[in-house]
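Supplementary material to the annual report.
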Amino acid sequence: MTETKSNPLLVVNKLNKKVISPGGELALLSDINFSILSSESVAIIGPSGAGKSTLLGILAGLDIPSNGEVYLDGENIFDLDEDGRAKLRGRLIGFVFQSFQLLPSLTALENVMLPLELLELPHQRETAEQVMERVGLLDRAGHYPRQLSGGEQQRVAIARAFAVKPKILLADEPTGNLDKKTGEKIVDLLFSLNKEENTTLVLVTHDTQLADRCQRQFHIDGGRFQEL
Amino acid sequence: MKVVKLALNQLFREWRSGELHILFLSIVIAVAAISSVSFFTDRINQALLLQANELLGADVVLKGDREFSDAYYQAAEESGLQTVRQVTFPTMVLANEQNQMVWLNAVDENFPLRGEVGITSELFKPERRAENFLAPGKIWVEPAILTTLELAVGDKLQLGMQEFVIDAIITTEPGRAGGFFNIAPRVIMNIKDVASTKLIQPGSRARYGLLAAGDEAGISAFRDFVKEKDEEGILVQGVQDARPDIRAALTRAEQFLGLAALTSLILSGVAVALSARRFTQRHLDHCAIMRCVGATQSLISQLYLYQILMLGFIASVVGVIAGFFAHGVLVELLGAIAGVELPGAGLKPVFFGLVTGIAILAGFALPPVMALKTVPALRVLKRDLGDLRASNVMAYGYGIGALVLIMIWQAGDLKIGLYMVAGALAAILLLALCGLALLSLLALFKNKFKNAWFYGLRNLVRRPETSVVQIVAFGVGIMALLILTLIRGDLLSQWQQSIPEDAPNRFVINISPDQVKNIQTFFRDNDIELPEFYPMVRGRIVEINDEKVSPDAFDVQQAKQLLSRELNLSWADQVAEKNQLVDGEWWDQSDPDLEYISIEESVAKHLELSLGDVVRFKVADQHFRGKVASIRKVDWGSFRANFYVLAKPGLLTDFPATYMSPFFLAESNYGFLNKLVNEFPNITVIDVATVLSHARTIIQQVSLAIEYVFLFTLMAGAMVLFAGIQSTHDERMLENAIMRTLGGRKKQMLQTLLSEFLFLGILAGMIGAIFATITAAVISHYVLQMPISFNFSLWFYGILVGGAGVSLMGMLGSKKVLSQPPLVTLKKVSLSN
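Predicted assembly:
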């Protein structure tokens, strides 16, 4: 499909997620509809427990909604089985997590190489080194996560996310475990890479200052979703 | 291919991180243990297979208690075979006023038909092939004869009524049993000289042999002839069934050594299971992230499967190599079973080792690890998802299944394999229950003391599953080593000491009836207490209740042995000392019916004889029958003259007999023996001390060999300890970091850790000592028939070895916990979480 800025990359239709709790049925997400264009940056904000991470999980195909549809690059991701969604994720989606989620037994470079290896892409080492250099950590390529600071670990995580040149980057509270100053640097890095790579950015955060940097903002609370 | 390459990359990274070391080493130890036994038994089997001719000294050997008639030699010649006439028996040699019991092998000039006799002219000089056979009047002797009698080649010695010149020293003799089976050194003589020695007389213990060699067709034809002739009492051995004594010994050795190796396998499996569980837990996030970045379930399965298989293969190769080097010690200790130089090992032990290693790893590690494919990708956002807690049934069930298959394969028999695994598991379960009981007892004290030395005890009690596993792992090894040390040392010594001081220490056999009075006079003249003389007739059981019996009709080895050789029969008018009637009645001398016999109870049991059964014996070319009138229990440990079969006086009078006598001779009267043998050269004097010493040497060597294999069990136990430490590593690190952050001193942390391992080791030592004590009591009472006594030094050594060994290894495995600064620990553990 030819992509233009006017074609939505992500389309969500009538998304609902309900769970059974001791108190009865609980609606985590209710009737959510929105679309995001290529290269847009979007923030999803809301208080703790509002359903932000649940929504992010469904958008990434990590979780299944009670009903509704999610189209990613024109494909209904829930028409695919779990392995199909995994392949799609590898091809299209990059992830950045609050807790970095680096593999402790791999060096920084090897963490960045991991998705390239899984997708069997060529020039894995060279590509990883390039991205490491872009995030300013090539000289730490041989270090293990435990030898890196929080900010450095998140930069490695960002490098891993961008190594496969994803079409969409999903970031779940990327600065949640960092101090303010480091967090700002990480956000700067995220947005500059986003601009360079023309990646769509979906950012889940409760930080309004961070949300203000995005082109669009959605608010979620009590399962209800609206654009600000 | 790409998946394999990726898996290899991941394997390398996991190895680098130290995650796989215990898994790897556990497999190496298990494979080394089983391979060392496998290489050893394979080489003995190869010797039996490839060198069977040399073991026999021929292609086929007939053994009997009478000389073979000319018909046999004629049949062999007609079949195109070469033959050797042979007669063998124990006898005495005399020289320099000393005597020595020897085993005489008298053969003709065609000997050997297969293999070569190696000789030398001087002790410790290189051997050469014997080019020419012995001339009459000359003998070849084994080195022990020269050293005992202070002789050299060229000297003379007396054999029976004939004097011989020592022509050479034997270094290699085809057909000779290994050192395990000979209590006397060998002498080779020209068969033409036997008559002049006058050593063979009616009723003597000589065994006659007809050795034959030739092509397969000729051997087959000759065997057919022997089968058709169907003469009683003839044993035929060919290359397929050569040396049943070696085969029986090998089977026993295989079983004991296999059991020791199996224990290592079980413990290694436990270490693998513990390590695999930790590996799985540590890879939950790893798998979730991989699923996030595009890995399918199938890819994850393949990656872990290939990693496990590759690790298993590499570890097994290392284990096989280690086992190969390790088996050298077994060859040193037990190689003499074969009696020939052992050929190289075949490929079967290599294959067996590789399969064992991969099977153990796959059985104990694959099920939990493969479950990683089910970890949901959503775990990256919700950490409570995908926590795999494999059930113990899954964790150990497949592994035990793999073990059962391995042991059945090794034993070559379904029943034996199942028994071995069931026995080992039952023993381990018992130890585990005992360990749990002791731990529960200790738990009562955990809060009584507020000292850092007792914090360790609390840690043990807090993790009962891991603690019991570690206690048992070490307890098994300590128990085995204590039992074997006991058997080698205390038990045998106690048994020997329990023998009355004045119990007979010499047996003189082969006394002809007309010599009895003269020998009695000789004893009296030399002021030696006159012993009892017992008549002995050599007879073979041929029929029971009018039905012919043969060794093949019975499965039990003892029954086969009783029917395949002549027994020593005697007669008595009263129940002998140290004999006790357990069934039936002793005969009434006034009853004119003579055809009664009394049977020893094990003979009755193995041959399924009861009162009233009629047994027919063949003595020389004659027969007699006897009805079982009574069954006796014999105290074999009394060292009296005891017989399996006693006849009513008068039944055996017409049969050729010799006499034997057990007697006690003080060491100060040793010179009497020389005079006795000099005066009566045809008799043989057996030194009981020599026999006991030989038996003791065999037991020591065998128990050392088994103990050696049990060392692998201790190593596997260490792996279980390390795996247990590793599985609680993060917890310990965090506890230690928090306690130090809150003000705990390094010394207190050290005490806590040390006390935990000390208690663990002491408990393991106690378990080992408890079960070693029980086993020793069983052996004392049922096997050696001694009163049970408790050896408290067992407990001391068990606790010392356990406490010291486990403490040392535990502290080594916990070095990082103490040395790492708290902040680094807190950072590292939160990264993992």
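The helical segments of chain A are 52-59, 82-92, 108-118, 124-134, 150-163, 180-197, 208-212.
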